[in-house]
C-alpha cells in the first residue's frame, strides 16, 4: 500500500556536490548542492541547481564556469558546513582549512583535498522556479590516484562518496558492491529470447 | 596526486531511475536511466536524460508525461534488464512479471511493486547532445507505507535504493546512516562565529 506525500522534491540516492566558483574579486567560494547529476554522455555534462539568493548564483552568471568537487565521508562535516554557511559571511574553505585550487581548464576553483573533481563550463541555463539549473559541459574529470582500481577506473569503494536523503534529512554512506551493470539483468533476456 | 581522466560523464553517487511512459497505442514502457536527479524544490522538479534513439524519447515528446519508479535492491536484476532491453522488442514489464499501474495524475504508468514513485509532467526540454534532458514537475510522490519511518518520512534504510557507478559500471547498495543534514557541519559555524 502506497501513501501519497504530495508534490515533494524527493528521490534516492541524491548526491552531495560541492560547487566551486569565483566571485567578482576572484575570491573562491564553495557551496553544497544536492540537486544535480550527470545529464549528457556526449559531450559529457553535469547539471546543478542553485537558488538565486546564493552567492554561487551570481558567480555562475558572471563567470559561466564552475567545478564539482565530490567529498568522501572523511569530509562529511565540512561538506555539511558548505551547505549551512554563506560565502557572503565567511571564507568557507579557509574556515575549514582546505585548499582552493585554480582549474587550468575553467574559470573556477576546486577543493584540492577532495577525491573527484569535475571542471565545467556553463552551456545551458533553465529557470525552473525557486532553483535555476545550470548545465556544465565537463572539460575534465580528475580523480585521486588512490581512488583508482587496478584498471585505472574510479572505484566507489575507494572514493567513499556519500548521499543526502531528502525529507528524512540524513546522510548515508555507500554500501556493498552488488553486481555489474548491463549484466545482472541478462537473465531476463535469455528467458525471453 | 590526481590523475586526469579527460572529459567523462562521471559523478557519485548516481541514481537508477525507472522512467515510465505510454506509447502511441497506450502500451506501457519502462527504461532505466542513470542520468537524472532532483533539479528544483518549488515547484518540485526532477530531471531525466534520454537518447533520441530510445522508445521513451518519442513517448516523452508525444505525451509530455512520465513517472520515475525507484527500485529497491530486491529488483536490481529487473532494473538492469530495463536498461538492456528495448520496448520495441519486448514488453519489459510483462517479461519480468511486474505491474504497470496507470497514474491518476499524469499520462504515464509506474511500476506498482517499486517503493517510491514520482508522477511528473514535462515542463522543460533541453537538447544537450547525445542526450535530451526532460525536466518534469513532480505532481505527487507515492511511497510504500513499509518504507516510512515513525514520523511518516521515507527512510533510505527501508527503501533500500541503489546506485550505479559510471566508468566502473557496478551497482552499489546504500550503507550506514552517517548524520543529520544541516547539523553535523555546525561545529565549524561555532568555531568561526
Plain-language structure description:
The structure is a homodimer of 193-residue chains. Chain A has 193 residues and is α+β, with helices and mostly antiparallel strands. Chain A is 17% helix and 42% strand. Chain A is built from five helices and twelve strands. In chain A, strands 3-2-6-9-10-5-4 form a seven-stranded antiparallel beta sheet. In chain A, strands 7-8 form a two-stranded antiparallel sheet. In chain A, a hairpin with a 4-residue loop joins strand 11 (162-165) and strand 12 (170-180). The first copy, chain A, is globular. The two termini of chain A are 34 Å apart. At the A-B interface, strand 1, strand 4, strand 5, helix 2 and strand 9 of A face strand 1, strand 4, strand 5, helix 2 and strand 9 of B. Strand 12 (170-180) of chain A pairs antiparallel with strand 12 of chain B.
Amino acid at each position: 500500500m502506497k501513501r501519497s506525500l504530495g508534490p515533494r522534491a524527493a528521490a534516492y540516492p541524491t548526491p552531495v556536490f560541492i560547487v566551486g566558483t569565483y566571485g567578482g574579486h576572484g575570491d573562491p567560494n564553495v557551496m553544497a548542492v544536492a540537486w544535480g547529476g550527470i545529464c549528457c554522455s556526449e559531450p559529457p555534462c553535469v547539471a546543478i541547481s542553485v537558488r538565486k539568493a546564493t552567492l554561487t548564483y551570481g558567480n555562475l552568471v558572471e563567470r559561466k564556469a564552475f567545478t564539482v568537487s565530490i567529498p568522501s565521508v572523511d569530509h562529511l562535516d565540512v561538506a555539511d558546513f558548505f551547505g549551512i554557511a554563506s560565502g557572503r559571511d565567511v571564507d568557507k574553505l579557509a574556515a575549514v582549512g582546505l585548499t582552493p585550487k585554480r582549474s587550468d581548464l575553467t574559470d573556477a576553483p576546486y577543493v584540492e583535498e577532495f577525491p573527484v573533481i569535475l571542471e565545467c563550463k556553463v552551456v545551458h541555463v533553465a529557470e525552473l522556479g525557486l532553483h535555476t539549473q545550470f548545465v556544465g559541459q565537463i572539460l575534465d574529470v580528475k580523480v585521486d590516484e588512490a581512488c583508482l582500481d587496478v584498471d585505472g577506473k574510479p572505484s566507489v569503494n575507494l572514493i567513499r562518496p556519500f548521499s543526502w536523503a531528502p525529507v528524512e534529512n540524513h546522510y548515508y554512506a555507500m554500501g556493498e558492491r552488488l553486481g555489474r551493470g548491463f549484466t545482472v539483468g541478462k537473465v531476463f533476456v535469455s528467458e525471453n529470447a
